[in-house]
Amino acid sequence: MATTEAPAAPSTAPPRLRIPSAALCGVLALFAALAAGHLVAGFISVNASPYLAVGNGAIDLTPVGLKDFAVRTFGTYDKVVLLGGMAAVMVAAAAVAGVLSLRSPRPGVVIVALFGLLGGFAVYQRPDLTAVALLAPAASLVVGVAVFLLLHRIAPRKSPPAEGSGGTSRRSFLLGGAGALVGAGVLGGAGRLVSGTRDATASRAAIGTLVPAKSAPAIPADADFAKLGTPTFLTPNPEFYRVDTALSVPQLRAEDWSLRIHGMVERELRYGYSDIRNRPLVERTITMTCVSNEVGGDYVSTSDFIGVDLAGLLAEAGVRPGAEQLFCTSVDGWTSGTPVAAAQDRGRGAMLAIGMNREPLPLEHGFPARLVTPGLYGYVSATKWVVDIEVTTWKARQAYWLKRGWGEQAPIKTESRIDTPKGFDTVPAGAVRLAGVAWSQHNGIANVEIKVDNNPWQRTTLSTEVNVNTWRMWWTQIAVKPGTHQVFVRATDKTGYTQTDERAGTVPDGATGWHSTTFIAT
Ligand SMILES: Nc1nc2c(c(=O)[nH]1)N[C@H]1C(S)=C(S)[C@@H](COP(=O)(O)O)O[C@H]1N2
Ligand SMILES: [Mo]
Hints:
Low-confidence stretches: 1-11, 162-166
Number of helices: 12
Radius of gyration: 29 Å
Number of strands: 19
Largest sheet: 5 strands, mixed
Helix content: 25-40%
Strand content: 15-25%
Strand order of the largest sheet: 2-1-10-5-6
Bound molecules: the ligand Nc1nc2c(c(=O)[nH]1)N[C@H]1C(S)=C(S)[C@@H](COP(=O)(O)O)O[C@H]1N2, molybdenum atom
């Protein structure tokens, strides 16, 4: 059947909007849409907020190389940069949507609706959200389109509208625009308030100090050379490095948390927070390291972790023969695959941890509970906000970073770092003090050597070893003439392995190479 188009009637076409007011229509509709989505998400989960869902989706889709570049370049600010960049792109696109709608609102409506669908898709993809969460992007879509249509209708036109077509003044547009802005602010603020009542801060505060039944040995005074320029042996909780894919810190209350252990086990088990807390807690001093740590980088920190033996929980469940990995899932859907052998090895001491340095875990480090496995990089061993452990094989399941090209087995590599002097520091010529840190978790550090310019390697003084699962500090003093000097460091671990000078990048299983620093003596 043929369709006939209505004949064009340029003489009766509605007058065009002015470009600035058209752009404003788009941008204000965007704000209103995001705010409405945020409000609805407040009742469900912050992760249902379309803006965060799109951001989280972008992180999951980012190619390994780019994500590695972002972590390297922006460090902990990678998420701020991502959210800021997204905001800039969205505002620009919304303004364009407005400008494309000078005459008819249709192009703008289509673009606003596409945004809504993108948000909906991102929310739909999240493993931690149910279908209810789609209400948030749906609210965004409806409010975005409605506000856009309304503002478009009352926006000032270029030529006076024909009689009877419902003319409007600049004043009513300003009022409408201000109304949309204030409304967006109120909705967004209400969203924050609502989600605030469900957050985990109060739950954490109610837990109080955690006292282990079996404390870690006290850290000896000479375990660090902080006065000579190394880090302190224990990392204060706020300074502990943080690496995860979560744009907003998961809010999981202790009273809502449980851990399920299932799969290749004799009996499926489920533990609540008090089941864990009321057990005799152990405390272990462990140095964690991220596989994304560059040579000389600082994604390495040490804490007194408090919790229970992971091997003990696995024994209660009864691991069946043939099991290879613990496929561990976080409440936000992130996954890791921990070798069963490492988790069951009592001598290694993998933990389900609920505390760091006698406090409940900080929210960003996995409250209420996380895994910690000494000697393995965090992405295979340290699931934060852990809620599910499936005992399985390597073939059956592929964890988050494994799917993205990182290695299956990820023992932490022997590494060392110079902390003092810093690169391009100027120091007085003569006696110069060098200090830093080395680690080879689960092997232990045997010695650390430095090499100045073309001189031979020389030994340094090591700190008292706390245990083989922690870092060890070193320091020495050298004599230098005025001029520029380069110093290298390398560690040898207790297996006899000495760090290679061969440079390798972080992908797929950790960087190698000697850290060096150049300084100027005057
Ligand atoms: N849920 C979740 N757990 C996670 C991650 C993550 O992205 N999500 N990142 C892992 C990585 S790569 C590391 S190195 C450690 C870092 O733990 P931290 O942030 O407490 O230092 O957590 C691990 N656990
Ligand atoms: Mo990591």
